[in-house]
Amino acid sequence: MKTKYHQIALSLVLALSAVSSVNARGIEPPPAMTTQSPTSLEQIIAIALSNDASRAQLIAQSNATLSSGQAKATLMDPTIKLGVGGMPVDSFRLDQDPMSNISLGVMQKFDRGDTIELQQTQAKQQAEVVLQQADSRAQDITTTVTALWLELGYNQKVNVLLNRQKQWLEQLITSLDSNYSLGLSESQDVISAQLKLSQLEQKLVSNQQMQAKISAQLSEWLGSNWLEQTNQILASNQLHWDNLESVLAHAKDAQARYQLLLKHPAIKAIDSSLASAETQVSIAEEAYAPQFGVEVMYAHRQANNMRGEPAPDMVSAYLTMDIPLFTGSKQDKALEAAQYQVGAAKSQRDAWLYRMEAQLSALLSDRQHIQQRITHYTNHLLKQARAQRDAIERGYQTNRAGFSDVVTSSITEISLELERERLITDLNLTNNQIASLVGIYQSADYSLSRR
């Protein structure tokens, strides 16, 4: 019986060495993952930004808001008055009565106080609100596309690791089949290995499904042609975050992080909205000032005066002024509404900053703990799993460990590698969200090269 087990062990040496060579490399990327991707993340982000209809809509809306506001922030159109006056009804002749005339007048009203200048300022502020929303949309797209890229890279790496395990199981099954036909292996070992292979194939199908789903999500910005090129894209679940590390190194206290949040497009949009509301208060205050108007009229007379001489033409000029005497139901209410709007904008700004501060603190905490877990996986769990696998392989060859122990140790190691890759992906996803909050993606020189 001992000789029989030695023969089984000898026949499985090649299969066991296969998993050793595969797993010894740990989570190092395969050669295919280190080749240059035909499309980089930066290129994909640029394409996504140029194809995003929502961002284009916001930019057009900003231009429309500016033009509309500037159109309103102008003097009212002058009024031209043309007519006849003092015409006798018995003859309807202009040369019969000296009072008869043909008159042409021009009237122009002026806005109250500095209303026009304030309206021009407000138009720029309102346009800036929408433009900042477009910038916020661009930042959201960058964050979303980067997250999808990382998830795609993770699933591609999982696919590689699972295929390695599949290759080992196939070699193992081939060896077991040969030994079983010679009566050197048990049928349950063959069936167990085949079951593990079927389960692994199911995981591979699920992995392909997830990759297809992520690619479909990216097609929102990259178009349907993207789906045909997905197989050519080699993503990564790790990126270089040098800019982020530099920013965080100089923002270790809460006040420094608060200053970073103030540069976020969403906060800038609220700041512009607050400035617009404050300008509206100034406009409402100008409503208490009188509104002036000028009217000039020229009257041409064709009749003679009482001395028989041609009656001279006449010129009239008027200065008009309306005085807001009853302000309780109009000006006061308009000013009150504008002041409430300022308070609402300030509260909105505070709420956003509190929320973003909490998000940033939570993300920084997650980042620290994920880094600790990755270190633990690298320095302890994976090393222990490899040591356990090696010990079980040696025990199996000397008939001191069972076949199920060999398979279990291999699956345990690959599972730990997958868990570590998941943590690495989560770390990069966390960095991605932090970068979005602290304004890394607003820098013109930011780079997200893969590791």
TrEMBL record:
<dbReference type="InterPro" id="IPR010131">
    <property type="entry name" value="MdtP/NodT-like"/>
</dbReference>
<protein>
    <submittedName>
        <fullName>Copper transporter</fullName>
    </submittedName>
</protein>
<feature type="signal peptide">
    <location>
        <begin position="1"/>
        <end position="24"/>
    </location>
</feature>
<keyword id="KW-0732">Signal</keyword>
<dbReference type="Pfam" id="PF02321">
    <property type="entry name" value="OEP"/>
</dbReference>
<comment type="similarity">
    <text>Belongs to the outer membrane factor (OMF) (TC 1.B.17) family.</text>
</comment>
<dbReference type="GO" id="GO:0015562">
    <property type="term" value="F:efflux transmembrane transporter activity"/>
</dbReference>
<dbReference type="InterPro" id="IPR003423">
    <property type="entry name" value="OMP_efflux"/>
</dbReference>
